[in-house]
Write a structure and sequence with these properties.
This protein is α+β, with helices and mostly antiparallel strands. About 35% of the residues lie in helices and about 25% in strands. Strands 1, 2, 4, 7, 8, 9, 10, 11 and 12 form a 9-stranded mixed beta sheet that branches. Helix 5 crosses helix 6, helix 8 runs parallel beside helix 14 and helix 9 packs parallel to helix 11. The longest helix is centred in the middle third of the chain and has 22 residues. The chain is globular, with a radius of gyration of 26 Å. The chain starts with a helix and ends in a 6-residue tail after the last helix. This is Peptidase M61 catalytic domain-containing protein.
Length: about 575
């Protein structure tokens, strides 16, 4: 019948629309909890190149975690190949946490085997002129912030596939669905207000209750401050790992990952609460609203500052604790940037300073805004007014919010390429009576948090020298565990680094920096000591700079009032 109808339409000069060629990619879990990704292309297609063709896919994660799932499949460095006589290729992935990929790991399991969180950016294959059809199959699926039973599909039209192939871009990848989290689970997620929550079964009752309470409390606090709720539900997936550190991130559609250490002793409740509040902040500044992606310090600094303000406003953090955290960030930012102009900072991430410098500039902006408009209102609601109007946060909007139509200290820092950062920033802090500034020469003059941030800055620089610019580590109480992801010449990865040139990092980071600079000036090697086993030595690469932290910022006791946070 359909053939006859087609002939009749053709005879009348009408043409039936042809169905676009489609590549179907189906993700599921096998009985052992492994991720199976099946690729079924149009007839005749044998080569399936991964997109985007990134080095970490070709050289790292697929070699560590992935293999051909059946006899029909050949896994090459950059593509899957379908064997003759077969219709599809299958990739089998053993989920695990890779320290080398702090964000958007390919597939991370929940410790009790109840589910796997994957990132589509590691599995996408794009074919010219071909629709990409994602299919996710599991008893319970979380995708784009919503909960589904058994199956969910997402179609990316061929026109958008072609546009990405011709003009690849991160924002476009996020928009069309090849850069987002999807969760495949065996157990249903639970509803917490405007969010779905998939907890790791190994979390324990006390920590699970803490996550529920802080997630719901933070969502409510931000919703009240902004006067706007999220456009639809979000989804939070909690995973445990053996790593002592923790990490979180979000992707479009209000998907969030919270990776926690299995050992609860390595994470205080203060850190835990701040961690959740920071990540939820991205649902507002990168979801409900938007931020300038070319300057990550804007959304990271905003999320850091919003979390601190919320914790202090609700009594989860004492004024002294907040001052200590902000003070540590101020001194870390000063050490990292020195007198380099902030306006000359190129886009992208810069050794973690998007957090410390972002927070430093946000607190300065709120102090300026409070001074200019001292009306009584909650500090969190005041901060929410930063997104009033268009809702887009960029440097110009931050300056206008803080200083109105007469830009001053903040405007010069962000716009004047001739303005030295350190001098301009400390002068602004003093003019606002936020802080005192004095020279510093000894580590004993630093508070514990500032010592730790300086030690971390040191470890990052040491790893950068030895590991081709890469750095991956976790700070613990006694030292820094060097992660095994980077490829390094001499450092003993997987071990706990505790001293440089015989000087303990956590207690004497300033003296360690000076000692290394002196050793490099004489052409000597740098000795790294570990908690266990022999030391290692690495060569200085070029001239080692003087210690960047030469002055110490100490916040005044009434700093919170300058930010509009009531005393007590």
């Amino acid at each position: 019948m359909w053939k006859c109808l087609g002939l009749l339409l053709a005879a009348c000069g009408l043409v039936l629309p042809t169905q676009a060629a489609s590549l179907t990619v189906t993700g599921s879990l096998d009985a052992q909890g492994r991720l199976l990704v099946r690729y079924e292309p149009p007839t005749g297609v044998r080569e399936l190149p991964f997109w985007p063709p990134t080095p970490h896919g070709q050289e790292a994660w697929r070699q560590l975690m992935a293999e051909a799932g059946d006899a029909c499949t050949e896994l090459g460095p950059s593509a899957l190949r379908i064997q003759p006589g077969c219709r599809a290729a299958t990739l089998r992935v053993r989920p695990r946490v890779l320290g080398a990929y702090a964000t958007y790991e390919p597939a991370q399991p929940q410790s009790d085997g109840s589910g796997v969180l994957l990132h589509t950016g590691h599995y996408a294959v794009l074919l010219p002129g071909t629709e990409l059809r994602w299919r996710w199959v599991a008893p319970h699926v979380l995708q784009r912030g919503r909960a589904h039973r058994a199956l969910v599909e997402l179609r990316i039209p061929a026109a958008e596939v072609d546009q990405e192939l011709q003009h690849s871009g991160w924002e476009q990848q996020k928009r069309i669905g090849i850069a987002e989290y999807v969760y495949l689970g065996r157990r249903a997620a639970e509803r917490q207000g405007p969010a779905w929550l998939a907890l790791d079964g190994g979390l324990g009752a006390a920590r699970a209750a803490f996550v529920r309470e802080r997630l719901l409390g933070t969502l409510q606090a931000y919703g009240q401050a902004y006067g706007r709720t999220l456009p639809h539900t979000g989804a939070v997936v909690v995973t445990l790992s053996e790593s002592p550190g923790y990490h979180g991130d979000t992707t479009p559609g209000q998907m969030m990952r919270l990776r926690l250490p299995r050992d609860a002793a390595t994470m205080s409740n203060e850190d835990f609460s701040h961690f959740i509040a920071h990540e939820v902040g991205h649902w507002w500044n990168k979801g409900l609203y938007s931020s300038d992606d070319a300057q990550p310090w804007l959304h990271e600094g905003h999320a850091e500052w919003m979390a601190l303000v919320q914790q202090t406003q609700e009594g989860q953090m004492t004024p002294a604790q907040m001052r200590a955290r902000v003070q540590g960030a101020l001194n870390s930012c000063l050490a990292a940037r020195g007198e380099m102009a902030m306006a000359a900072l190129t886009g992208g991430r810069r050794d973690g300073t998007e957090y410390s410098c972002g927070l430093s500039l946000m607190q300065l902006a709120q102090a300026l805004q409070t001074q200019r408009q001292p009306a009584a209102e909650s500090p969190l609601r005041r901060l929410a007014s930063l997104h009033a109007g268009s809702g887009h946060l960029d440097a110009a909007r931050l300056v206008a919010w803080a200083e109105g139509d007469q830009p001053g200290a903040l405007g010069r820092l962000l716009n004047d390429r001739g303005q030295p950062f350190g001098a301009g920033f400390t002068q602004a802090l003093q003019a606002l009576e936020l802080a005192d500034v004095r020279p510093v020469d000894r580590s004993e003059e630093l508070d514990e948090l500032t010592r730790r941030t300086q030690a971390a800055h040191w470890v990052r620089r040491t790893m950068n020298m030895d590991c081709g610019g890469a750095a991956s580590y976790h700070g613990l109480r006694q030292g820094f565990k060097l992660e095994t992801g980077p490829i390094c010449k001499t450092l003993r990865l997987g071990q706990m680094a505790v001293a440089l040139q015989g000087l303990p990092l956590m207690e004497r980071p300033l003296e360690a920096w000076d000692a290394v600079q002196a050793a490099c000036a004489q052409g000597d090697t740098i000795r790294v000591d570990y908690a266990d086993g022999p030391s290692s030595e690495l060569a200085c690469s070029g001239e080692f700079p003087p210690r960047p932290l030469r002055v110490l910022v100490k916040l005044r006791p009434d700093a919170l009032q300058r930010w509009g946070i009531p005393a007590g």
